[in-house]
Structure formats: structure tokens, C-alpha cells
Specification:
Catalytic activity: riboflavin + ATP = FMN + ADP + H(+); FMN + ATP + H(+) = FAD + diphosphate
Helix content: 25-40%
GO molecular function, one term: FMN adenylyltransferase activity
EC number: 2.7.1.26, 2.7.7.2
CATH architecture of the largest domain: 3-Layer(aba) Sandwich
Structural class: alpha/beta
Number of domains: 2
Distance between the termini: 27 Å
Family: Belongs to the ribF family.
Pathway: Cofactor biosynthesis; FMN biosynthesis; FMN from riboflavin (ATP route): step 1/1; Cofactor biosynthesis; FAD biosynthesis; FAD from FMN: step 1/1
CATH topology of the largest domain: Rossmann fold
Length: 312
């Protein structure tokens, strides 16, 4: 996958391709349907494809959002695009308040048509673009038809009678409904972070934990609670239990702590990928350490007994 950053990087090599555009936050099953359509047409026509996305996410600029919002960071998206083998070329357009002032017509005519001269434009059914998101499918069809550029509209992906969207997945994650979020995403929701030195309290309790320094504060964190998680470390997968929250028994600040089952290596300064599998329970302030230990034993046993398909 070739990566281009900025409109000034557009050259003759990017012209005449099968293109799509969008924020693609989460790269969920609805997005994947668009990408698979893009690839199918690309192979049929014998032409490379091009995906155009924006950084940062437009809502972060327009609404001043600074944390706990994204389903996928730019790094996450680039990794998923690359490993999907669906995308030939990726163009990242820096999004700021000045760019946000470009009208829908100007965006399509001056940037998409004039600079890229696409062969076919693949879009989702609810595509909006331009200042105040005033551009839509009807307007896009009108502009492209004048330029004799074909358009392919991809219908929504539906699950449980609901249209899959980034917004609904954010709601699932916000309220800890990880299983539904994963079903709509088509993969396990994940975060990444570095292991830092903690108080060592978990080891004293018999449940040593890796304290995770969350690298990307803008990425959405699930509702506080205890979760069954999959831990990816140096390419290997482990089962674990993670506390997201403030460790109420000890009245401390917000933290991410993961106990990796049947694991005893030193992880300080190592990077872990944490896949969320299932929310087990709320955070609870226990009267004593012994009662906390008994609950942790129950949590561990519950994780061990989860159906194997949940981990796949």
C-alpha cells in the first residue's frame, strides 16, 4: 500500500483510479463492505484503487473533541488497511478549520475531479462532504455525471435490524457492551499501551498486573469495570482480566491494569495490544482485601470458562 500525506503529494500516479473517501473510524463491517466493493471493481477494471481519508477526524476539529472518541487512530487505520490487502493507495488529507470551509461542490470539482480524475467513485449510501456536510449522494451524482465519471453506491450493512455505523458502536463501547461492539466491528475492539511500573499491589494479592500507560487518549475507552481481555505480546495471545477505572478498593486515580493468566514474564516498558472480549462486572469497593481476592478468583474462573468462540 502506497501512502501519500497531503494534497501537495497528488501527482499523475494517483489519477484515473477507482476511489473512495471517508473518515472510516472503526473500519467496521459497513466500511469493509465499501472496501471490498472498491477492490472488486478495481480487479474487474484492471485499475488500482485509492482511499482518501482525513486526519484528524473532522469532528475533532469542528467540535473540539480531545479525548475518548476515536474507535481507531490513524496508526490503527493504516495497519488495518495494510493487512486487509484491499487498498492499493492511501491519501491522507490534513483536516483543519480552513479545509472545513471548502464547499461541497468545490471539494468534488477542485480536488476530486481536477486533481484525481477518478475512473469510478465508490461511496457509502450516506456519504456527506463539504462545508457543513451539505454534499450528499444526490449532489455527488449530479457533479460526476457532468464529468462522465461513474459512481457506485454501496448499501448499508445491517445487524439485528440496525444499520452498522461508527456512532452506534461508540454507544456500545461507552456503556461496556463489548460483545455487541465486536459483532458490529467484525473484530475485537482493542487498545494499545506501554507497561509502566505500578505499586505492585496486584502481586501482593496474588494477581500480578501490568499497568498500562494508555498511549492514545483520543481513543475511546470502554465503561469502567472488569473485562475479559485477550493480550497480544510479541505475536503471542494470552487470556487476561483487565480493570478499567479507579481501583475503588484503594481509592486511586483512573488506571488500566491487566492480569495475564498463566504468565510471569517481566513486561516493563513493553507494548501490549489489549483485545476486549466481554465485560464481567462493575467496579466494586470491597470492605477488605480478602473479599477482593475472592472476587478476583471468581473473575478468573469465569474467564477460563468463557466459550472458546468468544476469543476467536
Amino acid at each position: 500500500m502506497n501512502i501519500y500525506y497531503g494534497l501537495d503529494k497528488i501527482d499523475e500516479n494517483l489519477k484515473g483510479k477507482i476511489i473512495t473517501l471517508g473518515s472510516f473510524d472503526g473500519i467496521h463491517r459497513g466500511h469493509k463492505k465499501i472496501l471490498e466493493t472498491l477492490r472488486r471493481i478495481s480487479l474487474k477494471e484492471g485499475k488500482e484503487n485509492l482511499l482518501i481519508t482525513f486526519e484528524p477526524h473532522p469532528r475533532m476539529v469542528l467540535e473540539g473533541i480531545k479525548e475518548n472518541f476515536l474507535l481507531t487512530t490513524l496508526e490503527d487505520k493504516m495497519y488495518i488497511f495494510e493487512t486487509s490487502n484491499l487498498i492499493d493507495n492511501l491519501l491522507i488529507i490534513p483536516f483543519d478549520k480552513s479545509f472545513a470551509q471548502i464547499s461541497a461542490d468545490d471539494f468534488v470539482e477542485r480536488i476530486v475531479v481536477d486533481k484525481l480524475s477518478p475512473y469510478i467513485f465508490v461511496v457509502g449510501y450516506d456519504t456527506h462532504f463539504g462545508k457543513n456536510r451539505k454534499g450528499d449522494i444526490v449532489r455527488l451524482k449530479s457533479i460526476l455525471s457532468k464529468e462522465r465519471i461513474k459512481i457506485e453506491i454501496v448499501e448499508p450493512e445491517v445487524e439485528d435490524s440496525q444499520i452498522i455505523s461508527s456512532s452506534i458502536i461508540r454507544k456500545f463501547i461507552k456503556f461496556g457492551n463489548i460483545e455487541e461492539a465486536n459483532k458490529f466491528l467484525g473484530y475485537k475492539y482493542f487498545v494499545k499501551g506501554s507497561v509502566v511500573k505500578g505499586e505492585g499491589r496486584g502481586a501482593i494479592l496474588g494477581f500480578p498486573t501490568a499497568n498500562i500507560e494508555f498511549d492514545e487518549k483520543i481513543k475511546m475507552m470502554p465503561q469502567n469495570g472488569v473485562y475479559a481481555v485477550g493480550v497480544i505480546y510479541e505475536g503471542k495471545k494470552y487470556k487476561g482480566m483487565m480493570n478499567v477505572g479507579k481501583r475503588p478498593t484503594f481509592d486511586e486515580k483512573l488506571s488500566l491494569e491487566v492480569h495475564i493468566i498463566d504468565f510471569n514474564e517481566n513486561l516493563y516498558n513493553k507494548t501490549l495490544k489489549i483485545n476486549f472480549i466481554k465485560r464481567l462486572r462493575d467496579e466494586v469497593k470491597f470492605p477488605s482485601e480478602n473479599e477482593l481476592i475472592e472476587q478476583l478468583k471468581k473473575d478468573k474462573e469465569e474467564i477460563k470458562n468463557l466459550k472458546e468462540e468468544l476469543w476467536l
